[in-house]
Amino acid sequence: MIVPTLRTQVAIVGAGPAGLTLAYLLHQAGIEAIVVESRSREYVEARVRAGVLEHGTTELLAAIGVGERLRREGLVHTGTQLRFGARNHRIDFQELTGGKSVTVYGQQEVVKDLIAALLSADAPIVFDAEAVALGRLDEDRVSVDYRDAAGTACRLEADYIAGCDGFHGISRAAIPAQALTIFEHVYPFSWLGILAESPPVSDELIYTNHERGFALVSMRSPSVSRIYVQCAGDDDVAEWSDDRFWGELRARLDSDAGGPSVIEGRVLQKGITPMRSFVAEPMRYGRLFLAGDSAHIVPPTGAKGMNLAIADVRVLAQALDLFYRRADSAALERYSETCLRRIWKTQRFSAWMTRMLHRFDDHAPFDRRVQLAELDYVTSSRVAAAGLAENYVGLPLA
Ligand code: RFL
Ligand code: PHB
Fold this sequence. Notes:
single chain; FAD/NAD(P)-binding domain; 2 domains; eight-stranded mixed beta sheet; globular; binds 8-demethyl-8-dimethylamino-flavin-adenine-dinucleotide
């Protein structure tokens, strides 16, 4: 049987922030790439996830020409609030980092902007195309077998594959287990997140450490809030009625005792996110490069997942550019090592934020006191606050 085959220089599996940013960077460098994505365009454009863009992510999107709507609609945050002991404590990013800030802009908006830019540049994205096998990873021409929307078996042949298919994709699994080292920590709790038609309770995000558990009040616009509360690792979303959610949020913010007052609104979306730290090393096997969540996961407390995914593909795009322009593969050889330096620093920060802000059922009273002292230190020492701020707005590129 003849399998319909497309040929390109770089095959990209997955149209999340990593795959789409890479596709656009390669397009701008004049390198051919085709993206295959298992879901529909509508689905990936509606998937509610991350919301905080580091300073450098915003700058990159602006520099490549997909930052116009982001500049208009993104909410620039020059600081954040840490809430504990029934009080808010501000971390002033701008003052502590020499003028840097973050931008609150939904991941699905970044995805929409990148898809629009790619399609208007005639850069191909094949939606409803599930990659089922990656082949010949050790040879000169690699292949991606996928099923198109009609269920027809198709093939993509390329010089390289970028595995940008997220944590549950097939790329990492295509690497022989003995060639990877896995580092993992799974937390015993999850985040229940909602998107609601409710005006944000504050101009800035509030990260709350409360006896009852963590809560985070974020936003998407002046009329839409994105809010998370820590829940049990085995909780089912069906156990969380809207009333239970709002009640728990009010309790954790101490709203009835004068804390930020919650304005309840229609819940548009509700979901549970497990909390995990994960790294697979190295991020390369033969001609397959892993980028983004396919290689690493951070717990969302540091707001880093999407930013890290975009930082990876920035390194990969530069390395591929060097290879195609000058036949120099040195940067490709160093890809994994270069990315892992940033990834481990980001793992450290995300784990630290997670430990500092959540309720741990196995904490002894001693551990709880140390946790509160950590919060007191971070919010009273300029040096400690600067460490948080520097990481939150994003470390410089390696
Ligand atoms: P994605 O976004 O998961 O995209 C992978 C894409 O690959 C497709 N795919 C396949 N395509 C073809 N064939 C296959 N066999 C395929 N298997 C999968 C999938 O359909 C999908 O389109 O990975 P990427 O690009 O690496 O991006 C990573 C980010 O999505 C992720 O790290 C962030 O969302 C994490 N995250 C946050 N990151 C931040 O930077 N700031 C935040 O504030 C933040 N908050 C969050 C978060 C993630 C959350 N959840 C739900 C995991 C909050 C939450 C609740
Ligand atoms: C979000 O707005 O979705 C968000 C903000 C900060 C985080 C995680 C998620 O740490």
